[in-house]
Structure formats: C-alpha cells, structure tokens
Amino acid sequence: xxxxxxxxxxxxxxxxxxxxxxxxxxxxxxxxxxxxxxxxxxxxxxxxxxxxxxxxxxxxxxxxxxxxxxxxxxxxxxxxxxxxxxxxxxxxxxxxxxxxxxxxxxxxxxxxxxxxxxxxxxxxxxxxxxxxxxxxxxxxxxxxxxxxxxxxxxxxxxxxxxxxxxxxxxxxxxxxxxxxxxxxxxxxxxxxxxxxxxxxxxxxxxxxx
Length: 209
Known about the structure:
Shape: globular
Number of strands: 0
Mean pLDDT: 93
Structural class: mainly alpha
Helix content: over 70%
Distance between the termini: 64 Å
Low-confidence stretches: none
Number of helices: 9
Order of helices and strands: HHHHHHHHH
C-alpha cells in the first residue's frame, strides 16, 4: 500500500504540474515561467505544510523525484500540448480531483505523524491539497479558484475530517485513507458532474441613509 501511495503521489504531482504549466501557457510565459508555475502548483502546498510543521528538510529535498516529475511534466506540456482545452476537459478534472483527495490525506497523515491535533491535521491536509493552486492563481493575477464558488476546498476539508475521525474511531490506516479519499472524491466529482457551487457572499452596493 505504501508503494501505491507513493506512485499515486507522483501521479498527483504530475497532474498539478500540468495545471500550472497550462496556466502559464495561457499567459504566454517563457519556459522558466512555465516551470515555476508547474512547481508551485505541484509542490507549493506541501512545502508550506512542511515549513509550518517544522519537517526539515522539506519533502522534495529528501526525495528529488518530485522535482524531476515537475521538470519533465513542464517540458512535456511545452513540447506536446497544442490544444489546452483537450487537456483541461473532464478527464483532467477527474485526475485533479484524485490528486486533491490524495494530497489531503497525505498532508493530514504527515501532520499527525508530527504530533499535531486532528484540527491542525485537517488544516494541513487542506493546505497540501489547495495552496499550490492558490499560489498559481495569484501569480496569474486571478482570484484563487478555492476562494470562489467552486466546491474544491470543501471536498478537501471533508476528506481531512473523514480521515481524522476514522483514526479517532480506531479504523486502521489503509481503510481510513480509502474512506477519506472516497469522501473527498465523491464531493468534488459530484460538483464537476452536476456543476454544483457554493453560494457567493455578495454585497449589493453602498447603502446611504
């Protein structure tokens, strides 16, 4: 199971790197810009998580495979992708949802391993899953996806809660991971399929008495 999680983590890293590289391509960035956006999207959340937890050195320094996955993914996108829409379709969204669910569980797992409380573990799981994309959007001068109506961070929060609660009820590690990932995936995939979104907080202009 540990080996499966590792390879799935690499898959998620590649998917997140693709979304960063595509965002850079839409803004006509140079190869360095494409690589930077691919990297911050793929490993930005985990980097900030490790920094907050005091996990030194951060994961991609210990295992440089993450860096190679990001670099090769960015290079492949630059060389092969001529139709971003084809790569940004439903299948890519589903792969991204899988990455989100897995990153959430991995983040929460690492936080608990460092002695964090369940609440902090949920926060670290969400951070691992969504902060990279937030940094990407900020660098692209967009309002981050997770701060808009899109049901994205919500799926990550539910996944983190399911994981920590499962462990609290003495569920074994692997079943707890599966429960959490299925929960997060179900919410995110439902949001994609039925185009569900959260209500927006909207102020109706200034009121003058």
